[in-house]
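Much of what follows relies on a compact textual record of a protein's fold. A complete example follows; check for yourself that the lines match position by position.
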Amino acid sequence: MLQPFLSFECRRMKLSNRQAKTQRNGHPKRRYLARRLEILRAAGREFRLRGFAETGMRDIAAAAALSPANLYNYFRGKHEILFFCQDNSLDRMIAALDKARRMRTSAATKLRMVIVSHLRCVLDEVEGSAAHLLTTALPPRQQRYLLTKRDKYEVGVRNLIVAGVRSREFAPCDAALAGRAILGGLNWSVQWFNPEGPLPAAEIAERFADYLIRGLLARPDAHKRLSFGREPHRAVRGPVLRGEKKRASIR
């Protein structure tokens, strides 16, 4: 009877050791991810100021207060950083879309939440704006991976519009065309975005949502009922570094 007990105790101790090791390794992993996000923001600023082609790894290392050799411990090159920018931004947008889709509210309110979250992601996050600067600079394999995510997101936005048309909240329209018009307008905002402008990114996001939703509504007076309760429409965002609150307006 002793042998089965010892075997059980050995297995239990091995399992406890693995769990303890995982817990010990959790803090370095979090620090590693946090450092990657800091580098991401530094790279985003450099991409915006210099342009992607003109920005080198030494520029990014200097902006992130790292040596070039240390930078390569986190990213193998600027293309990997750009990929991480886009992938991270798409994850947040898809998360916001999924959250809106699960809510028990009108299609117009759901779409409004997605629009606000999308615009705040590309205006209020450095890496979000950097992610839309250059979409063809990545290797084909990475482009295909991101394109699959973008298609998923676009289909989700389109389905919100279709639901609004079916519920008669929205006027009959070509949902695919309307979806592309909305996403195109949101993504183009990085071209005129000025972080030193007089309006906060949150206010610009709300006004954009007003304009875009108003154009879809079957009854114009319904827009007044959508303008209340703006505070819940928050973007799904990653960690924000201290001192990185940004403001935006047309240049």
In short: Residues 2-248 form a domain with the Tetracycline Repressor; domain 2 fold (CATH 1.10.357.10). The radius of gyration is 22 Å. Residues 107 and 160 are 6 Å apart (CA to CA).
